């Protein structure tokens, strides 16, 4: 049997009132008595009546839906961002349509075109690692489609942006490894053109120079897909470990790079931190339970999603075009555990 949602005419027939009266009662019109409003609302609730979203969108010229483009739902960082997004969207009465690029430019392009064609009111975007051309976003944005960037932002597009202090996170991680006695610290990085990569690389280099250590570019390894493809991480690690002067620690600059670094060391029977120290970016809830427990930079992901959604809905509901945009930079947290503590010989 095909499900049919309750309609205004069903309430009208049951209560003996006109459809227009029912509609005005449900919209709290001053023309309808409180007694009639209560009767209509009570009956509507009893038959699980919900307004037709298409009719509502035509009337309000909004769908009360927002789109989200993330890299990967299975990534704990992005799943926590989604929780932050939905916490605001639910309260504000918006539905959320989530898509994932899986670090593919082509998927990202298809996702944003799908979302725009299905008339979402706006979109929250973190660009994929393959994305270096932003014309697909710029075109929609110039046509009035609200966009807010989070995590991986696009500086060329003037809109709200929410990220963390990537420089500080990388600086603190590298400085901690130096304090722990590591001398030759390598960096596993995301795609070179991404905003987060550039900022984290700058923090890594500044920490080395401030400590009087030379910056060796052969110790900086880029993984185009940010660790989603293990073979990329394996190749980068092999290259680093085959250097004549091998590294004794790594700073891994993303969630997937961190977990795949551990996977590599396990496969190669490399002991952490005895043979290689590690501090990585990670929002996994189990990093403290691993053996050894992982020192990590933890990002305020839920807060990032919450703020991004508030700014997007503010843009959507603004009566006049917004020209003053906010740039929110949240603070990461360094959690020091066993993987960065060099053992005394």
UniProtKB/TrEMBL annotation:
Keywords from the named record: DNA-binding, Transcription, Transcription regulation
One matching Pfam family is Peripla_BP_1
Question: What are the recorded GO MF terms, alphabetically?
Answer: DNA-binding transcription factor activity; transcription cis-regulatory region binding
| Domain HTH lacI-type, first and last residues per copy | 6-60
Respond yes or no to whether keyword Transport is given for this record.
no
InterPro entries in the cross-refs: HTH_LacI, Lambda_DNA-bd_dom_sf, Peripla_BP/Lac1_sug-bd_dom, Peripla_BP_I
Instruction: Spell out the protein name for this chain.
Output: LacI family transcriptional regulator
The protein's organism comes out as Ilyomonas limi
């Amino acid at each position: 049997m095909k499900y049919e949602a309750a309609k205004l005419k069903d309430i009208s027939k049951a209560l003996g009132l006109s459809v227009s009266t029912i509609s005005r009662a449900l919209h709290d019109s001053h023309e309808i008595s409180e007694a009639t409003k209560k009767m209509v609302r009570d009956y509507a609730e009893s038959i699980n009546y919900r307004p037709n979203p298409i009719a509502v969108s035509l009337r309000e010229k909004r769908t009360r839906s927002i789109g989200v483009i993330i890299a990967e739902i299975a990534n704990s960082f992005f799943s926590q961002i989604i929780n932050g997004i939905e916490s605001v969207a639910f309260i504000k009465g918006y539905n959320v349509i989530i898509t994932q690029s899986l670090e593919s430019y082509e998927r990202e392009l298809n996702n944003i075109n799908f979302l725009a064609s299905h008339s979402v009111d706006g979109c929250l975007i973190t660009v994929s690692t393959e994305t270096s051309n932003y014309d697909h976003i710029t075109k929609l944005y110039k046509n009035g489609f609200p966009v807010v960037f989070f995590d991986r932002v696009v500086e060329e597009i003037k809109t709200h942006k929410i990220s963390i202090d990537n420089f500080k996170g990388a600086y603190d991680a590298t400085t901690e490894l130096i304090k722990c006695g590591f001398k030759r610290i390598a960096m596993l990085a995301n795609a070179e053109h991404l905003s987060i990569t550039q900022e984290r690389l700058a923090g890594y280099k500044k920490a080395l120079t401030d400590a009087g250590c030379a910056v060796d570019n052969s110790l900086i390894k880029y993984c185009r897909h940010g660790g989603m493809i293990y073979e990329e991480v394996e190749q980068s690690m092999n290259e680093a470990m085959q250097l004549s002067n091998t590294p004794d620690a790594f700073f891994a600059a993303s969630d997937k790079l961190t977990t795949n670094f551990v996977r590599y060391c396990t496969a190669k029977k490399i002991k952490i931190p005895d043979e290689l120290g590690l501090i990585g970016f990670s929002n996994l809830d189990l990093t403290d339970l691993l053996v050894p427990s992982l020192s990590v930079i933890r990002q305020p992901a839920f807060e990032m999603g919450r703020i991004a959604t508030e700014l997007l809905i503010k843009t959507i509901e603004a009566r006049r075009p917004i020209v003053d945009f906010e740039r929110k930079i949240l603070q990461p947290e360094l959690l020091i555990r066993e993987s960065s503590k060099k053992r005394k010989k």
